[in-house]
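Dissemination and training. As part of the outreach component of the grant, students in the summer workshop were shown how a complex can be specified as a set of sequence lines and then modelled as a single object. The example used during the hands-on session is reproduced here so that future cohorts can follow it. Participants entered these lines:
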Amino acid sequence: MGALSEEIRERIRAEFPKYPNKRAVTLNALHIVQDAQRQVSIEAMREIAELLELHPAEVHDTMSFYGFFRDEKAPLGKKRVWVCRSISCMLRGGEELLADVCHDLGVKPGETTADGEVTLEFAECLGVCEGAPCVLVNDECYPNMTAESTRELIKKP
Amino acid sequence: MINRTESTSQTITLTIDGQSVSVPRGTTIWSAAQAAGIEIPVLCHSPKLEPVGVCRMCVVDVGERVLAPSCMRECRDGMAVDTTSPKVEQHRRVLTRLLLEEHLVPCEREKTSGDCELEALGRRYGLTDPQGHSLPEKATNPLQDFSSPVIAVDHQACILCDRCIRACDDIQSNHVIGRSGKGHNAQIAFDLNSPMGESTCVSCGECVSYCPTGALTPKAITLPIIPKSEMKATDTVCPYCGVGCSTTVYTVDNRIVMTEGRESPVNHGRLCVKGRYGWDYTMHPHRLTKPLIRKESAYPKGALSSEVKETSGQRRKPGGIVDIDEVMPAFREATWDEALDLVAEKLNGIKQAYGNNALAGFGSAKCSNEEAYLFQKLVRAGFGTNNVDHCTRLCHSSSVAALMETIGSGAVTNVFADVENSDVILITGSQTTANHPVAATFMKEATKRGVKLIVVDIRRHDMVDFATHFAQIKPGTDVAFYNGVMHVLIRDGLIDEKFVAQRTCGFDELKKLLLDDYSPEKSAAICGIPAETIVDIAETIGRAKSMLIFWGMGISQHITGTDNARCLISLCLLTGNVGRPGTGLHPLRGQNNVQGASDAGLIPLAYPDYQLVTRFDIRQKFERAWGVELDHHIGLTVVEIMKGALAKSIRGMYILGENPFISDPNINKVRKALASLDFLVVQDIFLTETAEFADVILPASTFFEKTGTYTNTDRRVQLGRKVVDGPGESREDWRIICEISNRLGMSMNYASPADIFAEFASLTESYRGLTYENLGPTGKLWPCRDPEHEDGEKILFGDTFPTLDGKGKLVPCPYLPAAEVPDAVYPYVLSTGRVLEHWHTGSMTRRSQALNAIEPEAFVVIHPIDLAVLNISDGERIRVSSRRGAIELAVRAEESVEPGCIFIPFHFREAAANVLTIDVLDPFGKIPEFKYCAVKIEPVTESASA
Ligand code: SF4
Ligand code: SF4
Ligand code: FES
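and obtained this result:
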């Protein structure tokens, strides 16, 4: 017991009325936990299963299907930075931008900086092709990025 | 795609490979082809599983643009199906080749049982031939998981057909297996991707039996597994619990190699861990192979092994079976003649000197109907006394007493599989997933179809996960709880008034007691369940069209066991829940032949078929049949016989296959009783704790070494067939009984068990007409009017009860507290019971490698809150003591028990729970109160445990 705080549990429970059954809350619960804890640990999955009255295997099924979720073996940094390398962005320098950020942070896509601040990812189209190349930091999207502006963005507290 | 002009008739006619086939609407093409004798290859499909259509091996040509999966696609009128066109064959060939890309040939299944379905397809398409298709040979396989004691996992051989997932989820309802990852990284996963041996897997092996490849295979238990066609297969049943699952046992050179579930109305091919993996005890090196006689030097008699000598809780040696080296020197080997002559001489001597009633016999609910019948015949006609009993006394005697009194019959009124017709299932005092695992699978399945499940128990066990209502009552307060429920039913007009008026008596008395004294509030104060919950449960029961009640030892093993059962019966009668589909009373029988042993007269008050020894006409009938004069006094029960031994009124005993030293309450007293017998002959397969007190030990046969019939909890009489020959000079039990009887001057001559069965059946109503021939492969339910053509009666008492007035009796029962309630010195309530992997006193299961590996040690379950107060941590060794003795064992912290209550399984001799239990009896069923006594808990100090 105890991977999930009462506050997180409350937030998960608050989702129940929006759906026809508790099973449907699985993804929301995984998001809530990952946002708060930067990972969905095995213990957290066990507790989600209990809250949603599912079998642990069912939660793990869903969690492991989506590359978006991380377990305790590869937790996320405080910031998750996505650099788009899909076609529009690629044509406008997205791949080079990604390479620059990799170099700056000293990590490969998917990895987290040693200080635990930033996790770098590549994205497959963020849906902002008119602003290519674009970058997503956590949930916010930034269009028309350069290596310079991205560096600034990442540094911003 | 749908043909709008299709007729709406219920029969569909189509052609498959040019052959015209008619099937009911809704049939899939695969099933239609199967019925027509056309084999379509499948990988993800299996007839008992829901089709999922993930592998596409079963595709056929139905004249559409793309091929159709036959396991999913329904037949349509006029459809023309081609199952072997070149296009179809090409598709299957490519698919097979792709799947084989990553499959090490031969995989584990192909290497052992030789039936990998993928490799068979590979051969069919010429792909596993070394010249045809070269396969990647990898030196090591990192994807193996050997953590389960019984199952080997090889993810490399897995083709993600989902069969195991459906077997675990849909068939066994254990929900252990899922998928993890996607695409190339997808694989099956146990729970949260744990190693199988650390997951919640209960080792039922269902997934293994459905796996088409070497991904999930059984580990060898005795000899390596080889193709089934090279082994001898024998159809029989499981030796363990009252569910009585049908099995096929495979042997090589007189050794059992593996066991499979077999199709029958009981288990539909399912098994639990005991049935599937727990048979190797029969080949254990400790088997008794020669008659043994106690040496002169080993008198005066007493226990021999240090653990049995003093159960102070000191553990001398690890492991849980009698230390042969310590015990054997007290005995010498003898010939059968010498041993049997000695038995006859001693028993006769006691009879002459102290009278017939100084003798007694314990039979066993593990022996067959034939053995039980012969044993009670020997005691009644040979010894001349009715002092014959068996372990039913310790499990359901109170239930039977209540059932006989109220509805005139002790057997179940309906089979457990009829839950499929119920609205509500009530399970009370039964940890069904552990004690009747396969029956539990059908109950779990029913809840998924929307049947409501009410669980009333002192422990939060696995069935609660499937329950709509759960009442965790305080120990020993069942009567108060059910009285509260019935109060609401009567108060709110939720009873079946017509049924009560026409088919019951005693309503007014019951109503008065309930309405006067058991308001939900008053019940709540006693049983600890909120009044609203009591009302809610009562309303659920009252509104249900049909309810089936299951109960176990949690109801029966109390001094109020009979009252508890009476309440359940009243609950059924008040709501009219007897005699219709989906309704009934079902006390789940523990051992494989509890029902049969009682049916065969292994009880002190009645001859076979519950014909009372006190009735003159009945006695005359048996005197005629057996050719001797019989005693008209009701005999003594198990615990009374032990007391008699202590008091020296019982002097000689014959114990067949029972181990009262571990199974009876208050062991320290049992020890004295066994030691004070003038003569004790024990007939068993192992040197049990009880055999340490014997003068003569006779080597008997295991379930697998003899033929006989066994009657399961549903009243289904099934044939257990001899699978292997017994070791050394061990003999079949029925032969040994005959030898002793003949030496006592009561002649018994039978050619075979079938002969004995015929004699037994002819003296009963219930079994009359049944023969070894007409029992067939899956047995018959008694009563069976026409055994040649019918399966027997599932549901009893549709019109009337076999009581004098034909009515069911409602018996009011006021609540009475348990015999020994906690106090300042002994503040905790102890309840005893079983675990999934073990059986009774452990003499079989602890000698089964797999079962012992899963659950090797004694433990006590305590709530974390209590542990915190006592400053004891999970896993620590502690001492539990009662007024009668003390044991030491490891703690398991669990919230399944309430604070203040602890639970100890009674299988473990080195920490025998029955050292602690109290030998007070229910006044009617004479059953001891195993489920309630007061104990205290202390940490073990270092010096004491050293
Ligand atoms: S052995 Fe039984 S419980 Fe375990 S994974 Fe297989 S089907 Fe599920
Ligand atoms: S449920 Fe009972 S009868 Fe069936 S396999 Fe398990 S122990 Fe044997
Ligand atoms: S068997 Fe039909 S799709 Fe797998």
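Residues B 238, 240-241, 243-245, 267, 271-272, 274-275, 437-438 surround iron/sulfur cluster (ligand 2) (CB under 6 Å). Students were then asked to discuss how this feature might be tested experimentally.
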